[in-house]
Amino acid sequence: xxxxxxxxxxxxxxxxxxxxxxxxxxxxxxxxxxxxxxxxxxxxxxxxxxxxxxxxxxxxxxxxxxxxxxxxxxxxxxxxxxxxxxxxxxxxxxxxxxxxxxxxxxxxxxxxxxxxxxxxxxxxxxxxxxxxxxxxxxxxxxxxxxxxxxxxxxxxxxxxxxxxxxxxxxxxxxxxxxxxxxxxxxxxxxxxxxxxxxxxxxxxxxxxxxxxxxxxxxxxxxxxxxxxxxxxxxxxxxxxxxxxxxxxxxxxxxxxxxxxxxxxxxxxxxxxxxxxxxxxxxxxxxxxxxxxxxxxxxxxxxxxxx
Length: 306
Hints:
three-stranded parallel beta sheet; mainly alpha; extended
């Protein structure tokens, strides 16, 4: 291998301290990080520089004097949910990673993965100045076969085998890996699973939709109960297609506006209804109800006086 890969996730590493600890863990180093508010940002920068200098296995590299014939492994930082890292206070981690990437101290690359198009606007000026301004926009799968293979790959172990992670051959793990791969391949060939995938592809073609439908079946599987195709539809986290299921969640005001919009649909015989039209109808109904309530109260008062 010519480079290391460090994967971070904004949902898991919620601050810079956890992110740095995870970097050390994935690179095979253990550290005890203590919070020191006095040192502040420079403390994080020193730790990052010392961490990257250790990869060259040379004391000269740690002091900043890199030999011309020195060979060191590069590092690729993959930041999933990049927008969450941009929401960290002062964006210290991003600043230090981008700063080291621009310098010649260590060969690193930083890849930020996000669904937010305007994530660059969330970066501070000092961080944005060190950003290379390189974007790669990935579109949704163009064909059903691509969508099918991508969903299947999400349920399989990563390309490096489990035995390679343990740095020793393990026939049982390799057998388990092959058995699970065969099972997933057969699962994706069943008619009900193909129908489920085609439904998602025809409506949204979103991989996140499939991930949501697969979360519960995969998390609940056990050696005696493997997920079947019907589990992806019966135990899904996806919202119901029936809009009537949303009615119990509406507030009184939202329900009143919906009733006003439905009245306009009948009165005007049109499918076009703006918020202003629904609000005017709601105000009219509220005023009419107030007048009727007032008249009923006066009538009741008059009958009582008689």
